[in-house]
Write a structure and sequence with these properties.
The protein has one domain: Porin, CATH 2.40.160.10. It is globular. It is mainly beta. It has an 18-stranded antiparallel barrel. The chain has 2 helices and 19 strands. This is Alginate export family protein. Pfam families: Alginate_exp. InterPro entries: Alginate_export_dom, Porin_dom_sf.
């Protein structure tokens, strides 16, 4: 008995050292204001988002579980499901769900395998991302394999059978909680003298019985180059180029081929960053739903924060943009402060339509685990959508 007790006492510390549990917790409260032509009322949405969970690791294994809740603190907005159709849409409905539950194995040479409900961010999130600006993020029920060798070769392969959308548990129709199907994401990249070069494929086969979702089934193949070159001791040139071709796939009732093109260049010098870019989501000769689409992207990140182009118009989209940003370190009591301003000019890819123009501005200040963000979007409509102003004030704390 004494020997057994001693053995148990000696074994417990060894197990404790081999097993680590890391808590996961973040809180975000945000007020979003929307003034949009065509609505009698302005939207004022105040919402609280809370995530909590833990990751346990032992040897090569990691188990992560995380719940997520979004709570409206008022109801002066259309969440998509609350019956407030007289207000502009703010896509943050009330929600309570299992956000992530994944098992990961890191025992293979330079390879990580992750299975379960997980967050997937691929490169700049233009084709696959988590829509992290929304209170309820997008996750995937999937199996993912990632490989990286010391010389820089990276391979990333994912099969997903369900996309857990931003709409949450009350989602229905084209705004449902989960969109089942067969999704394949593949990415192969390697550093070169001109920058990191990657080839990618995104295959979307949605099998939900909703026509609008059938039309999102597509096959996209592309290449991306991103890099930086020194201009002097104090400045560097940054650049990115991406081209992709997309065609209808599986249940999509349309027959189309459209192309995507991104060209971007920037200069960074000290705290300053200047960027000029042009992004084209091309259009085929069809009448509708034949322009280049990226339904699994972090869409709010691209083509303006007014969110007028979450779905590319039938005639495609050409977005010419310029931005300037500045970053302070250890100023005014904050660890960092970063203001930025961006201008967009939107045109169609065919028929020569001038959709409109947009200004975006942001300032974010960080102090320890706290981040405070103020953000603005102003869309001036010409031949697409309606004049819209949006403003946000957000406070976030993350452990």
């Amino acid at each position: 008995m004494i020997a057994a007790a001693a053995t148990s006492a000696m074994a417990t510390p060894a197990f404790a050292e081999a097993t680590a549990v890391t808590p996961l917790l973040d809180l975000r409260v945000r007020h979003e204001f929307v003034d949009q032509d065509g609505f009698a009322d302005e939207a004022n949405a105040t919402t609280l988002r809370a995530r909590g969970g833990a990751e346990a690791s032992m040897g090569a294994w990691r188990l992560l579980g995380e719940a997520e809740a979004t709570v409206p603190l008022n109801h002066d907005y259309d969440s998509g499901f609350n019956g407030k159709a007289g207000y502009p849409l703010v896509s943050d409905p009330k929600n309570l769900e299992l956000n992530r539950l994944q098992l990961q194995y890191r025992g293979l040479a330079r390879t990580v395998v992750t299975g379960g409900r997980q967050r997937i961010l691929i490169e700049d999130q233009r084709f696959v991302g988590n829509s992290g600006w929304r209170q309820n993020e997008q996750t995937f029920d999937a199996v993912r394999l990632e490989y990286a060798d010391p010389k820089g070769l990276k391979a990333d392969l994912t099969y997903s059978w369900s996309v857990r959308t931003i709409w949450g548990r009350d989602g229905v129709g084209g705004r449902q909680q989960a969109v089942d199907g067969n999704y394949l994401f593949a990415n192969l990249g390697h550093p070169t003298p001109i920058g990191n070069v990657s080839a990618f494929a995104v295959l979307i086969d949605q099998n939900e019985q909703v026509v609008s979702l059938y039309r999102q089934s597509s096959k996209t193949l592309g290449i991306r180059v991103a890099g930086a070159k020194p201009l002097s001791k104090a400045a560097k040139l940054t650049y990115a180029f991406s081209f992709a071709s997309q065609a209808d796939y599986q249940r999509n009732p349309n027959d189309y081929v459209s192309n995507y093109l991104l060209t971007e260049a920037g200069v960074e010098s000290g705290p300053w960053k200047l960027v000029l870019g042009r992004e084209v989501l091309g259009a085929d000769k069809g009448v509708a739903f034949t322009s280049f689409q990226t339904p699994l992207a972090t869409l709010h990140k691209f083509n303006g924060w007014a969110d007028k182009f979450l779905t590319a118009p039938p005639n495609g989209l050409r977005d010419l943009y310029a931005s300037v940003a500045y970053g302070w370190k250890k100023q005014f009591g904050f660890d960092s402060i970063g203001p930025a301003v961006t201008y967009h000019r939107y045109r169609s890819d065919r028929l020569g339509q001038h959709y409109g123009n947009e200004w975006n501005a942001i300032i974010a200040a960080k102090k320890g685990r706290w981040t405070v963000t103020a953000k603005y979007a102003g869309y001036d409509a010409r031949q697409f959508a309606t004049d819209t102003e949006k403003a946000w004030l957000q406070v976030e704390w993350a452990y």
